[in-house]
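Convert to structure. Protein one:
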Amino acid sequence: MKRLAVLVTALVTALALAVPAGGQEADRFREVDSSRTTPAGDTSRIMALNEVIEVFVQLDVPSVAEYVADQTEKGKKPSKRQQRAQAAAVDAQQADVLPQLEAFGIELLSSMRVGANGFRVEVNRQDLTAIAALAPVRSVAPVTRFEADNDGSVPWVGSEALWDMGYTGEGISIGIIDTGIDYYHEDFGGSGDPADYAGDDPTIIEAGTFPTLKVVGGYDFTGDNYDASGLVGPTTPVPDDDPLDCNGHGSHVAGTAAGVGTTEIGPGVAFQADLYALKVFGCDGSTNVTSDAIEWALDPNGDGSMDDHLDVINMSLGSPFGSLNDPTTIASDNASRNGVIVVASAGNESGNAAYVTGSPGVAPGAISVAASHDGAITFPAFRVEDGSSVAGLYQALEGSIGPALRDVGPITGEVAVAVDGSADPTFLCSPAVNDLTGKIALVQRGECSFGIKHDNAAAAGAVAIIVYNDAARGDALVSMGFAVSTIPGIFTGNTAGSAIAAAIGSGETVNAYLEDGLEVATPELTDTLVDFSSRGPGGGNTFKPDLSAPGVNIRSAAVGTGTGSAVLSGTSMAAPHVAGMAALLREKYPDMSVDAIKSLLMNSTTPAASYEPIARQGVGVANVEAASELGAYTTPAGVSFGRVNPIKNEEMTRSVDVTSFDGNKKYDVEVVINTAAPGISVSAPAQLNVKEGQTRSFDLQLKVDPKKLPGDDGFFSHAEADGWVVLTDRMGGETLSVGFMVAVDPASDIQLSPNMKTVANKGHNLGILDGFTLVGEGDLIGGTVGAVGYRSIFEGVAEFAVAQTAPWDSYSNRETDIYVDLGNDGALDFVLFTVDDSWWFGGDPSGYALVVYLDFRTGDLFPVYYAVADYNDHVQVLPLPDVFMIDDDTESTEVYYEVVTFGAPGIDGVQVGVMDTAAQTAGAYVELDGFSTEHLRIPAGDWLWLLPNDPVGEQFEITGG
């Protein structure tokens, strides 16, 4: 394969896109489960390195939104004429730069001048470095692919109280950036006739169909067949004027935000607001054009002035590990700085991995929404009839393996524990040995597929099957599918199944009733967080998510049904509740700033009903009635102290402004700790008085004692402390809640003696000294690669060390690629790249990164080890089997390499060099407890030392030479 000189691209970031120390080889090199032989993620772009990549090229002249926001913050709000002049300046720069880009053979996909200044282009991967080096280019970043992440929930968030005050969203515009809107649906004032929807040509606007009195405008940026990934449709958008929804997601979201309501669906939060359908998805798949829709929302008539911008935009979409430099995030933040309230879902990647919360919600000015349960939440259920000790309703999910209960139910029958002839008889993985004729089979999960269990139950005469979870997985519910059977089935938790089995085992007769639509109330879940809701903090340790709203079992408009409803769950369903709330507050306070409305929503929240870190729930669960009753607000309403990484005692201060717009306030101020961390304390003044019309500030102070901090072994470890500052008005009783969070990362202080004979750790935390042969220094593009090292001192393992000059937050939010040409013969042999292990194994992002090997000669692709790295660091080690570094043809030890690193801005480092694997200095690895010293025996040579537990900026050192 021809060498790609200074190949610079994100192999995996563009797709979608833990190791205890110990010093022992077995611990350091955590091998990968080999049971999976193909990745769960998309490999289409990895396997074709010469193909083009879609990127956003941002230029250095401020966009219209940046210009207006900057001038407004200086007290000089630009006129419409001045805004248009800035648009002309952007146009002029783009006209000058575009020919330079076209010289690289780029394909221009779209341009932005209002929300951001730049081009969305397709470009050959090997040209990215040269493009990034062009003088007017601010950044080059892969375009992020986004995926689409009320009758009970709408009243729960306090909407009806605002309606009673006369605030219904009338005159407020909400842009739904999503899959479009079914404007024929009765929930949006349409005809309610499914035939009208079915007969529509989605590529044109038939006379009298669109716009409507409710869906007053919009645009289809993609066409129905588009899919950014190319997996289910073409990657090239075919825009048209008709934003009719062919997926359903956007209509459901729009109904929650501002639907007018039907006999089956309650009204949306701001039911009299005007809707704009900004369609950025095809019927299925992902999208790369979200930023184009934000551009439209800022300047609907396209004249370069934002005087006609929308009031609110909702984006129930996202991509995990949100980037502050994605064009959508940039445009979102610029929109919020110019009067648009931007609401976005936090993401559905579960609450386990830190920093996984998505863009565009990570934009500082946007409102990122996590998902909670509302007080009206019910779950599908089955009933155990009276007459047994276990009578009652139990949560259950109907499977899709057998016929639907709505078609064959209801079903009533005696429950029998199905038994097979194996050593574990209750799994029913072989034919039943008991007669189940006319009965409902009770079977435990595990050992075989759900389909086999269904088949064996049916063969024994059962009329239905209840599968209950095993003890290890408890009461988590799953949907049974991917098989076909003749009997219906439901899945319930271990508690319910075990109790029923025990009752039958004691001689009781247990009868069950299975019916479609049977539900059970779950008041214990009220205002608790949902397990799928993504965790923060945001990129750069910003305060994200901002707040929570209902996102489970939300009923709203069902596309194509005319009047019907659908029940969906996700942070996608939570965000439009907040968009509707924002619209109501904008109607009540037409002149209030975006930041102030965001703060009202955050200051008025209540903490989640069960413990959750602030990085999961934000400040708390939103309620618009409470927000509307406040007479003051704080800015910010969520405070991040960032990452603390001290060697000595440290203090940090964040200032919070309190503005009263209704009455004089005399506040008692209390710091309430939610997540405690040893060595961390937070304080605020005890009282604060604010007169009406006045803004006063107070300092929130963080103190850190490194002696008491929890230990950090340097391998994918992360700790947080968080809580609230609660201001209670002694005069009126109202309270303002301000959330705070801090990422805690204890530090060592490794010091090498000048003669290299001793190493000391003068810090409290475990220290690590990791020595490699230095093979290269510096960065070809002036980026973040400081040095590269190599060694092979552990049996069977070679290692590349890459030291960068700037830290990441989550290692899964970046990528390092190392291209290798064995023998330096001009043909690249393989590449190592890093990626979150969910790309290979599936499931939610974990924060743990794999080192994956791709052989250009054979096409082989597989993970080799986990990377050795940590949160909030800037040094990393990529292990691989040492036999991969041997040139079988020539036995040459000369190796050409290219190291390319990618961070949130896109390409952030490139180093190219030639090394001799036979000439390496012996490596070293030393662990030191706090305030300890070790003697070294270090041979002469050029060394790269990694100090991964030292503070940022001091994590590598070069000696020798």
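Protein two, convert as well:
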Amino acid sequence: MGGRLLPRRPGLNGYTEEDDPFSSHRVGYDSRLQTKEPLALKTEHQGPKDAVVLEGYRNDMDNGFEGERPLYNPANTTRPQSSMHLNVNDPIQVHLLVETALGDSREYEILAPEEVDDLKKEIQALSQRIDQTRQNLVIQSKYRDAANSMAKLYSSPDGKKKNGIMHSRTDSVKEADLERIQSEKKCEALANELWSLEKKLMVPQNKLLKHTAGILQMTHKGPKNAPKGTTAQTGGIPGSPESIYTYHNARTSVEPISDEIVFDERSYYRTADRLDAFSDFSGRDSFGPPPKSQAREQMQMIAKTEQTLESLNKRLRDVIVKANPRRERTYSLPPLAKTNAQGRSTGPGETLQNHLEYMERSIQTIDQEHGLAAKYQQESERVAEERIEELNREVRGLLLPYDPYHPEPPVLTGTGLNQQLLYFQDSIGAVEMELSSAVKKGNKVTDGAEMEKMIMGLWDIILSGEQDIRRRKQERRVARATQGLSPDEDDSPDDSPDLVESFSLQAFSTKVQMLYTQATRLKDQKKVLQRQIKQQRELNSKSDATKDAEMQAKVEELERVKDLLTRTEADADRTREAHSKAIEELEGLQSSGASAAEHEAATQKIRYLEDQLQELQDDHKITSAEIQSQVAESETKIAGLTVQLKAAETAIKDKEQEVDRVKVEVARLQTEVTLARAELDGAYGSRAERAAEAAAMSPVATEQVQTLKKELEETITEYEAMTKASIEWEKERDKMEEAIDKLRDEKENLETQLNEEKVRCMGMKSPSTETPGNTSTSTMVLRNEFKKMMRDTRAENTKALRAEQAERRKLEDELRALKRLHGPGKSGLSQSVRTPS
């Protein structure tokens, strides 16, 4: 099986490589030995001794159960977590591995989905218990090391020769030895418990791994079509590397899955109604209703989509409730489809929109929780940095009498804990050096008065440092109260009294252990905060880049429309001026009785101007089509904003209903508290205990009300922003309609002038060509030209309409993509992560 069966990241099985029972750093392997030979495992009735188990975990406790590095093969880009000796480009090697895996997993048991879920839940529960036990073991080992150090200090060779003061501290020496023994026993008990849990974890993990291998072996598919003229190979092994991709699966209980029954995931992003009356789901033009078989397939696809969305919504609700258990009762259930006795949907498509709205609302809820988590992380990081800075000042106060040139702690930056932790580690090293030198001096001095004086000095420095910390906390509380801010939890008064505590070696040891515990806990908090901040920054960078690109595209599109309108108006003005000049020249020629040649030249010029006017009309039509496309796009955006507005109103109604339910719950709790108080007045228990229990229920309800009020305010703010955006789009639409009306009026005026000019030309009679035949010929030519112009106009209109429809489909697809990426009301919530409840 190898030393590494699972990757070092959470997978579908719910555990990581650190929980791998087959890894080389688990119990059952001595991590101190290079050979890593397995220790003798005991049976359930006769397990290993506690001391042996604890010794096996020694290296794991020293490195914080970090485990070994996973395998990494840079040559394998598709799966880098593989051995360096594996060559994925070698077909023979890959074929042998596949055949070996299929043969080894042939007899493995295959479980039902319910059994797999039970195994995963059991593995998750055991993994959580194992992680908690590991943390407790690491902390208890630190206590044990501190107790051993104090016991060595008491049992020094020179200390036994002292009399007087040191003779009266025999009880303290006994207490230190007793504490050391108790710490050893606790460590051994935790190590034995961890060993038992890991042993239990091996059983469900082994079953789940065998089930996974068995189901993959059973559903492994060979080639779809065997080559003609080939015979079955012996044992299912191909005869050459080229025939690797032509073998068949020996386990024929499952046929290869056909592409026809695979669920089309693209249906997730289709709406129930057709977006265009001229196209069906396949994108091909059709006229008339679809056939019955196609309609039935579409209804089946819609029903499957509803079932998939219902399952996804249930999983989303489970994620929300798991992250915040307080939403178990308040968060609504996903909509359910109506089914018949056979479990089939009776009305496909009825709950599709409700499922999409529920999914959108769930994503918004997750984003809100993420925002609260980000604020909590920033505040926790700031408080942790202040706390470490206080500890650094306290440790510096300890070192100043012995090292006057010890540097000052780093200033608070609010960006991280690295500098403070490095300073704290250096200070701890200096303290250890000072303690070592003090122990050496104490061994050389015959009188114990100097050692006692030194420890008393350290004790006074610790007490003065604690008083200084309490004084600074009081100043911060006063400053926050002056600014009108809520009091900080870390600035609250300490549980320890302000009275000066009497000195004793036991008290001094407790103080040192407390400082070390605080440093260890803050270091763990630093790792968690760094990981969460990195995830939040990646989220923010993706969201900001998408929004900036979308805004830039909209601005460029608006500028292009404005330039197009300006050019069209300028061309129309130039054409009107040229037409006016031609009419004036024609009237001058008629009034002065010009010759037939001049009249013919004027007629040709008029035709030339008519051609230019026709070209201008064509350009004007194209421009009108583009403007209509822009108006349709604006209408589409307005419709999208309207849908988002309705979703926001629905969310506000849900929040109001949730607030009402919370109010009713608060009233019910108050009534229950009143009744309970009345019943407990004559029953057992003190009044102080009853008051404490009643007070513990009120803050929970108040906190829920405050949280709901905050969510309602955020929803109202988003609703106002969407309303403003809708009004702006409406104004822009009005401007576009005014521009279209203006261009339409100009077009009609130009057509009227052109018709008048044509009639005027038809009424003119030349002296040399005044015959009835020529008049009828001119009329026929004009009629043919008019028919040709109408045909061209219809063709252009049809082409513009098709272009507009294609553009509208493209914009609708982009709008759906934007909805899936962002959704309504995510302007300020995409930068957040969930708060731990």
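The radius of gyration is 42 Å. The chain has a mean pLDDT of 69.
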